[in-house]
TrEMBL record:
It comes from Climacteris rufus. It is found in: Secreted, Extracellular space. The keyword Methyltransferase does not apply. Residues 1-90, 92-180 form the Fibronectin type-III domain. Its main location: secreted. Keywords: Glycoprotein, Repeat, Secreted, Signal. CDD domains: FN3. This is VWA1 protein.
Length: 184
């Protein structure tokens, strides 16, 4: 069982390591730096009673070299090292645009399109009101057509980006359908 990371986000991760020391027998020195930038190394001392630690305040989409050095007054333990890459920054949709609006449909598009998004959920419903419908769109698309709407109505449209990490970010816009053709 070796030093490894879990719960990795764009700005933090949790390190876990085997219990080599105890409170009485020493402490750990933890060193970490972005790969290729040893000058930006940070050092932390951790009590021998611990076997995990969260490192936070990290740069997104960066590989860190981590070394755990057991400082024991009883035995020699070799340092354990690992490399951990933080996730890309999760950016919410920054723009939601409504276009080509007709009596029964409109087009919704959004930006930016990000690799870290698995899918988008488009929720829409008339205002006022609480009937909401959902469209699922694959993460590589950035627009969809919303149909079967009532003419001359205002809709609230929310685009939610669902990230690989499970996080979600949303942005809303209002859309109005055109008046329908009146029967003569």
């Amino acid at each position: 069982h070796r030093l490894h990371a879990t719960d990795i986000t764009s700005s933090s991760f949790r390190l876990l390591w085997p219990q080599l020391l105890s409170q009485e027998t020493g402490y750990y020195t933890l060193e970490y730096a972005p790969a290729g930038h040893p000058a930006r190394k940070r050092t932390q001392q951790v009590s021998g009673a611990h076997s995990s630690l969260v490192l936070s305040d990290l740069a997104p989409e960066t590989t860190y070299e981590v070394a755990l050095i057991p400082e024991s007054n009883m035995h020699y333990f070799p340092p354990q090292t690992t490399r951990v890459s933080t996730l890309p920054e999760e950016i919410s949709p920054v723009q939601v645009l409504i276009s080509e609006s007709g009596p029964h449909s409109f087009h919704v598009s959004w930006a930016p399109v990000l690799d870290s998004v698995v899918s988008y959920q488009i929720l829409y419903g008339p205002l006022p009101g609480n009937s909401v419908k959902v469209l699922e769109v694959e993460g590589r698309h950035n627009s969809t057509l919303v149909e079967h709407l009532a003419p001359n109505s205002t809709y609230l449209v929310t685009v939610t980006a669902i990230y690989r990490s499970g996080k979600e970010r949303s942005l809303s816009a209002k859309a109005c359908t055109q008046e329908g053709e009146r029967a003569a």
